[in-house]
Amino acid sequence: MTLKVILIESEDGYAASCPVLRGCHSQGRTQEEALENIRIAIREWLDAEADEHAQLNIIEMGNCSRGATLKRRCLPLGGASV
Q1: Do 82 and 76 contact (CB within 8 A), yes or no?
Q2: Handedness of CA 33, 34, 36, 40 (dihedral sign)
Q3: Residues 75, 63: contact at Cβ < 8 Å?
């Protein structure tokens, strides 16, 4: 998988972000360190996203009422909409 990464140089080193993954940012003292750190951040972001989707599917299946349809999503525990 290839993802675009933006590097921004500052007085303190480099900031790195992956625009297609909301909130996926990192930094490093050198360009190489920033790139390695953003690679780690991307892997962790994708792992967390996969875990979240797996949990949502289980919650939805366990808490849907008999009258729920595909057009009307079920709510996870806690009442937050998905």
Answers
A1: yes
A2: positive
A3: yes
Splitting the chain (82 residues) into consecutive groups of 10 residues, what average pLDDT does each group show? 91 94 96 95 92 58 46 42 40
Cβ neighbourhood burial of 10 (10 Å; 0-12, 13-18, 19+): exposed
Strands of the sheet containing 13-17, edge to edge, are: 6-10, 13-17, 25-28
Count of residues making up the chain: 82
* Token pair for 12: 């303190």
d(CA 5, CA 45): 14
Joined tokens for residue 55: 């949990």
What amino acid occupies position 43?
R
Distance CA 16, CA 4 (A): 10
